[in-house]
Amino acid sequence: MPEDKYCAGCGIPLELRSLEGRVRPVCPQCGRVVYYDPKVAATAVVERAGLVLMLRRAVETGYGLWSLPGGYVDRGEVVEAAAAREVLEETGLQVQIGGLVGLFSEEGHPVVVAAYAAVETGGKLEAGLEALELGFYPLDGLPTLAFPRDRLILTRWRTMTMMDGS
User: Fold this and answer.
1) pLDDT in tens, 130-141
2) What domain range is 117 assigned to?
3) Degrees, nearest 5: CA angle 69-110-61
4) CA 27/CA 101 separation, integer angstroms
5) CATH number for the domain including 75?
6) In angstroms, rounded to a whole number, what is the distance separating the alpha carbons of residues 109 and 38?
7) Contact 45, 153 (CB under 8 A)
């Protein structure tokens, strides 16, 4: 849980109270409840000849492990545009964002991930600042993943493409 210590309205130290089924910071003076919003991230599954694009992470969390290209959505940014921007920044590839694969979240984790299918439209495959290495992998031969949800995303993506006849 984030560490807000004082009420933004009156400056009084916050107290943790059980409220609405969760422990939340509450101002004992004015009653203001602090609600922490989730952070939204966007990722894209880019396929080339039956293989999916993965990157070996150059940043924490998961340094040295592999993930789908993606990252945080900026405030005011369209989620699909964020997915395309992240792919470009991390891999050098331009993509057209397609259908939504799904929204993925985990109990106790503040990030909600919007995953999309994407089609490569240009650019040059080149590792960006947040990638040590890039590669295309078969679904049954993925490298060690930084985030278990990436396997869920790829399973859902494969199911979607099989239903579409792709």
Assistant:
1) 999 999 999 999
2) 39-164
3) 45
4) 40
5) 3.90.79.10
6) 8
7) yes
